[in-house]
């Protein structure tokens, strides 16, 4: 059963929301639902599963996003994901990248709502955890009113537990994936109307949400809000999630404890053959706006990327940040 209290989630973002990023985000919020990068169903079935799917137990609740368009392959990949311990399986019907289109999945599936429904039904038949969908309001010349309604009706009839809607069209011809994140206009009202038509189904909203205040405003109209680039580039905002949306965290946030946790995590990663930079690249924007943040960024961008760099670099960077005048705790 999909949790109706998943008010905040962190969007699946290719090349960004890897296991190290998600571990960081979990130190900032205990309650937000985290999503993996999209993983192609064929890779799950035939690839190196631990590298593709492995995650730290502290990441829960965490959802696996799959890409694909073959119902049986998606069902098998979903089964594997459930066995790995994921809390949810999400189907990507929103990514506009060229490599996704060439595989006939992602946003181009908006044009094949019956196939999307078949994929959802197949996955539901293989797993006991929630199966959800993330989509756009439409693609190319589609009218977002009937296109989104048709997709929504189909996936919920097939058993989907939730639908997350990026409130922009995707233009598969003429715009790059990066341009598709900015140029098509946001239409939040379209998602609000969808929720009004589906009062008993979970509808979440995504796209252009820059702050927790904006997310709170959206939740007056839908069931959940999904943060994307704002959560990645300024992850410190996530320290306010549990207080703002769940009212279950102290007023101050202990960033020193977070740095200790990330340093310990980095040690484990390095011992397995990884590098400090794999972890710290997700932490560069952590103290955005605070005195000393520029020096913090400089240290992580230079010293943390050098061969042999260890967690002492992370602690040296943290020491440059000035928390005086804030509600956060530095030590």
From TrEMBL:
User: What is this enzyme's class at the first EC digit?
Assistant: oxidoreductase
Catalytic center at which residues?
Answer: 95 (proton donor)
- Molecular-function annotations in GO: flavin adenine dinucleotide binding; FMN binding; tRNA binding; tRNA-dihydrouridine20 synthase activity; tRNA-dihydrouridine20a synthase activity
> What would be one Pfam family of this protein?
Dus
Going by the UniProt record, its keywords in alphabetical order are: Flavoprotein, FMN, NADP, Nucleotide-binding, Oxidoreductase, RNA-binding, tRNA processing, tRNA-binding
Q: Which residues form the DUS-like FMN-binding domain?
A: 10-307
Q: Which residues bind FMN?
A: 12-14, 65, 134, 166, 206-208, 228-229
Instruction: Please indicate if the UniProt record lists Nucleotide-binding as a keyword.
Output: yes
Q: Which reaction does it catalyse?
A: 5,6-dihydrouridine(20) in tRNA + NADP(+) = uridine(20) in tRNA + NADPH + H(+); 5,6-dihydrouridine(20a) in tRNA + NAD(+) = uridine(20a) in tRNA + NADH + H(+); 5,6-dihydrouridine(20) in tRNA + NAD(+) = uridine(20) in tRNA + NADH + H(+); 5,6-dihydrouridine(20a) in tRNA + NADP(+) = uridine(20a) in tRNA + NADPH + H(+)
Q: Which EC number(s) are documented for this chain? A: 1.3.1.91
Q: Does the keyword tRNA processing apply?
A: yes
Instruction: Please indicate which residues carry the site annotation Interacts with tRNA.
Output: 92, 178, 181, 294, 297
Q: Give the required cofactors.
A: FMN
Question: What NCBIfam families does this protein map onto?
Answer: PRK11815.1, yjbN
Q: Which family does it belong to?
A: Belongs to the Dus family. DusA subfamily. Belongs to the dus family.
Known role: Catalyzes the synthesis of 5,6-dihydrouridine (D), a modified base found in the D-loop of most tRNAs, via the reduction of the C5-C6 double bond in target uridines. Specifically modifies U20 and U20a in tRNAs.
> What is the name attached to this protein's record?
tRNA-dihydrouridine(20/20a) synthase
Whose protein is this, by species? Mesorhizobium prunaredense
* Gene that encodes the chain: yjbN
């Amino acid at each position: 059963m999909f949790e109706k209290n998943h008010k905040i989630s962190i969007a699946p973002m290719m090349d960004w929301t890897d296991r190290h990023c998600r571990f960081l985000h979990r130190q900032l919020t205990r309650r937000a639902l985290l999503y993996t990068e999209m993983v192609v169903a064929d890779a799950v079935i035939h690839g190196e599963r631990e590298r593709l799917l492995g995650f730290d137990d502290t990441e829960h609740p965490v959802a696996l996003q799959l890409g694909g368009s073959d119902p049986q392959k998606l069902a098998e990949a979903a089964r594997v994901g459930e066995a790995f311990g994921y809390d949810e399986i999400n189907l990507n019907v929103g990514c506009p990248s060229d490599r996704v289109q060439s595989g006939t999945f992602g946003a181009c599936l908006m044009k094949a709502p019956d196939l999307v429904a078949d994929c959802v039904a197949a996955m539901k038949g293989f797993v006991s955890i929630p199966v959800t969908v993330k989509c756009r309001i439409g693609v190319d010349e589609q009218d977002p009113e009937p296109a989104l309604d048709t997709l929504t009706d189909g996936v919920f009839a097939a058993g989907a537990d939730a639908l997350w809607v990026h409130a922009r069209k995707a233009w598969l011809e003429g715009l790059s994936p990066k341009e598709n994140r900015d140029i098509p206009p946001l239409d939040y009202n379209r998602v609000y109307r969808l929720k009004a038509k589906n009062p008993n189904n979970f509808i979440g909203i995504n796209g252009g949400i820059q702050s927790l205040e904006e997310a709170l405003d959206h939740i007056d109209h839908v069931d959940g809000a999904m943060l994307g680039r704002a959560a990645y580039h300024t992850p410190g905002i996530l320290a306010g999630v549990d207080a703002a949306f769940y009212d279950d965290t102290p007023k101050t946030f202990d960033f020193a404890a977070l740095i200790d946790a990330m340093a310990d995590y980095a040690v484990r990663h390095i011992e397995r053959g990884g590098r400090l930079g794999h972890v710290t690249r997700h932490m560069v924007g952590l103290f955005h706006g605070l005195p000393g943040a520029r020096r913090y960024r400089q240290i992580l961008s230079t010293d943390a990327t050098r061969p042999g760099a260890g967690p002492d670099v992370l602690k040296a960077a943290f020491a440059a940040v000035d928390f005086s005048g804030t509600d956060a705790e530095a030590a």
